[in-house]
Structures are given as C-alpha cells and as structure tokens.
C-alpha cells in the first residue's frame, strides 16, 4: 500500500457526502474543488519522489515546488510546511482502505480484514510496485524527520476513527462499542506495522513478494485473537 495505502492506512469520508466510489461522486463535486485536490496530489507525488531519493531532511519546499511545476507561493497556498506535502498521498491510501471496507460483501470483519490486507498491500501492477518502492524509501526517512512522523501517525489515527462507524454497522447494533473501537485500532495498526517493519528490512523492496502483507496479517491475527469469540457469537 503505497503511501497511498498508508494507512495506512489516507482513502476522508463524511457521512453525508458521496464517497469516491459512488457513481457520479466526482462529477457532483465542484470543478474548483477537484482541481485543488488534483494539484495537492501532484505536489504530494513530487514531494514523495524527492523525499525517497534524497531523504526528507535534504529536501526543501522550493525543490518540491519546482518538481511539481508550481511557484513557491502556490506551494504555500496548499501546505504550510514541506512535511505536510506528503499528506494527500497518505490520505489517499486511507481512503482506499475505508472504501474497500464500505463496499465489501462480507459482514464478519474478522474474516474480511485479512482479505483486504492482501488487497491493499500486494501490488498487482508495475505502477503499484513502484509506489510501494517510494513508500518504503519515504518510511525509512520518517524516523529522522519528526514533523513527517507526526503527519504519518495523524493520518493513521484519522483512518482508525473513520473505520469505527463502518465497523459498527458491520458488527450490528448489539456489538460492544469498545470491541468495535479495539477492532478499528487493530486493523489500522496491522497495516501501519506491516509497512513500517517491512520498510525497515532489506527484503522484497517493491512488495511484490507480499512481505508487507504477510507482516500485517501476522499482526492482525495476533492482536485480534482475543476478539474472535466476541465477534463470532
């Protein structure tokens, strides 16, 4: 899950607004808003590429603006700091994660999440493999850049919060709200830890062998073990 999947986890949904997966959702949004989002995403891609190549600490806002083909003034219209520029990619990934969960036919989250983990973390195209390479290189530099680390954890926290109402519906009205919150936390942390632990290693650099997915599956299985009884009854 490239920076995008990143959670993670990120894919932000408002309850009353059409999601990106809803037919006609994109055309229903104002053109100016869509252009603004497209510009933000282009800047984010430029930032991610530079961060991956040179390390976040060696990249300036000026360099990101130049790579994105915009002025420095325009850059600061969208982001207050270079570390924030990568947020749209992280959020885009979380949006995908949330959208897949919303559209899934299964009703049991304990069997649903393992399938979704593979779906978001095992790249199926050359473009997806390249995104994971970039994600891995950016994640390696996050520890050395506190503001970038803050953005990463903020996106993951947001993803977790957005999972809760969807899981509440999946689990039904009798589900314990604490169990629902725990499950949202486990799902988000499984993706986050899968990506982070994979990025810190030296194997499967593009994720095509499924290493980040396998790690995330392990994390989810271990952390959700105590919930199995509650959600299967």
UniProtKB/TrEMBL annotation:
Gene Ontology terms for molecular function: DNA-binding transcription factor activity; transcription cis-regulatory region binding
UniProt source species: Leucobacter komagatae
Domain HTH tetR-type: 37-97
Low complexity composition-biased segments: 15-30
PANTHER family cross-referenced by the UniProt entry: HTH-TYPE TRANSCRIPTIONAL REGULATOR RUTR, MYCOFACTOCIN BIOSYNTHESIS TRANSCRIPTIONAL REGULATOR MFTR-RELATED
Protein name from the UniProt record: TetR family transcriptional regulator
Upper taxonomic lineage: Bacteria, Bacillati, Actinomycetota, Actinomycetes, Micrococcales
Pfam families in UniProt: TetR_N
SUPFAM superfamilies in the record: Homeodomain-like
DNA-binding residues: 60-79
Keyword list, A-Z: DNA-binding, Transcription, Transcription regulation
Region Disordered, annotated ranges: 12-33
């Amino acid at each position: 899950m490239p920076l995008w999947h990143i959670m993670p986890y990120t894919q932000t949904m408002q309850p009353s607004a059409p999601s990106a997966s809803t037919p006609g959702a994109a055309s229903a949004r104002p053109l100016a808003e869509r252009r603004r989002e497209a510009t933000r995403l282009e800047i984010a891609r430029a930032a991610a590429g530079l961060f991956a190549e040179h390390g976040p600490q060696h990249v300036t806002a000026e360099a990101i603006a130049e790579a994105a083909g915009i002025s420095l003034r325009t850059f600061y219209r969208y982001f207050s700091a270079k570390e924030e520029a990568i947020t749209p990619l992280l959020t885009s990934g979380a949006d995908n994660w949330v959208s897949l969960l919303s559209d899934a036919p299964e009703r049991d989250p304990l069997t649903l999440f393992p399938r979704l983990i593979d779906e978001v973390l095992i790249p199926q195209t050359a473009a997806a493999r390249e995104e994971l390479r970039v994600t891995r290189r950016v994640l390696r530099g996050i520890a050395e850049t506190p503001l970038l680390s803050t953005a990463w954890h903020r996106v993951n926290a947001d993803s977790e919060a957005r999972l809760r109402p969807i899981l509440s519906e999946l689990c039904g009205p009798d589900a314990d709200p604490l169990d629902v919150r725990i499950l949202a936390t486990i799902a988000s942390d499984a993706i986050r830890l899968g990506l982070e632990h994979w990025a810190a290693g030296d194997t499967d650099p593009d994720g095509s062998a499924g290493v980040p997915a396998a790690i995330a599956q392990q994390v989810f299985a271990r952390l959700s073990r105590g919930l199995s009884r509650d959600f299967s009854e």
